[in-house]
Amino acid sequence: MQQETSVSTTTTTTEEVTSRYIDFKLDFSFHHFFAKEGHLDLLRDFLNSVFEGRKVIKQVRLGKTERKGDQKQNRKTVFDVYCTGDNNEDFIVEMQKGNQEHFKDRILFYTANLVQGHGKSVEANWDYKLPEIYFVAVMDFVLDESPNEHHIHDVLLVEMRTKKQFYDKLGYIYIELPKFTKTLDELETNEDKWLYCLRHMTEFEEIPVSLSNNSTFKKLFEVAEVTNLTPEEMDAYQRELKRKRDNYSHEQYILGKGIEQGLEKGEHKKAVEMALKLKARKMPAEEIAELTGLSKEEIESL
């Protein structure tokens, strides 16, 4: 990470926590920054930076993050962060740490759940008018078949023949953090600064000078300070941090076993190919077994 002169303050180390600032890419941290009444200015600033002036959000209100299904047996929906804007727009904001099967389907399901919820809360003479609904997904991975030149994807309903927007009240914004590779000196927009902090928060030793004069980012770093967490928050953060490390260790183990098995399969395939060639030359099975490491029974079955 590129070095920059920084504003210094004191720090202490905490068990299991090796960085001064909390990891933004954990569910606990995402809630800590964006889903508390005292931090709504951070959420508003982040959303405004992502929409880049297309929408200007003056205030946000937190809503219930849990939605129950119509029937008792139906699955409930739980959002990371759910809020409404000053024009009653709905915003779902989610941190996704790893890719998963049917990821796009799940996001569509979440917004469909919101649409359905609006239909259930109206009078009998409702005219089907809906509020704007937006899903913002911050992802610590790259989508399959995603173009390399873009780290943000703005997805809308478009009429394919004319390429014009068909419906302007439903949108999805996907942010692929691994593709955001700007250095500290290259940050230009507010969006750049947010994405840089999202990706690199645990690498900072203090707030960079270029961000310290901005009241929003100054508050962001204060909120992110590990030593500012309450004992309950620290306990929750440590638990999730441990879970993240355990998951990573397990993933590395599975990956290593997969590579090992792949190598074993490759070696076995080579041995079989050699055995077939030697067998074609009428070499005795005992000698082929000695040369290839295959069993006599396996060679005879080839």
Model description:
The structure is a single chain. It contains 9 helices and 10 strands. By secondary structure, the protein is of the alpha+beta class. It folds into 2 domains: 213 residues, no CATH class; 72 residues. Strands 2-5-6-7-9-8 form a 6-stranded mixed β-sheet, sandwiched between helices. Strands 1-10 form a two-stranded antiparallel sheet. Strands 3-4 form a two-stranded antiparallel ribbon. Strand 6, helix 3 and strand 7 form a beta-alpha-beta unit. Helix 7 packs antiparallel against helix 8. InterPro entries: RpnA. This is Rpn family recombination-promoting nuclease/putative transposase.
Domain count, please report it.
2
User: Major sheet: size, sense and barrel closure?
Assistant: 6 strands, mixed
The run of helices and strands is EHHEEEEEHEEEHEHHHHH
Q: Which descriptor suits the 3D outline? A: elongated
Give the helix/strand layout.
Blueprint: E1 6-7, H1 27-34, H2 40-51, E2 60-62, E3 66-67, E4 77-78, E5 81-85, E6 90-96, H3 103-120, E7 133-139, E8 152-159, E9 164-176, H4 190-200, E10 207-208, H5 209-212, H6 215-224, H7 231-280, H8 285-292, H9 296-301
Parallel strand pairs: 6-7, 7-9
Antiparallel strand pairs: 1-10, 2-5, 3-4, 5-6, 8-9
Helix pairs in contact: 7-8
Summary tags:
302 residues, alpha+beta, 2 domains, six-stranded mixed beta sheet, 9 helices, 42% helix, RpnA, Rpn family recombination-promoting nuclease/putative transposase
